Amino acid sequence: HNQVSRFSYKSLQDEDHLQSSVRYHRKIINALKAKDKNLACRLMKGHVLEALEVLLSMPELREEIADEMQYAAAVAD
To answer: Which of the residues in the chain have pLDDT under 70?
Structure first.
């Protein structure tokens, strides 16, 4: 949880990503209100992937994110 919070904080330092994140959250809420779980899932996936792209564009976090992804993949197996 702490790592997610840290990565979220870092990615939201990018103004374009912050605005996009707000738009994604609004769309996700609207999809949930409409009980459209398929749309909500697609939007959430897109939101997470976009945040990951932003984080990967930050050189100081690239290695740390790669390590986290390897750990997550190992735990999932």
So the answer is: 1, 3
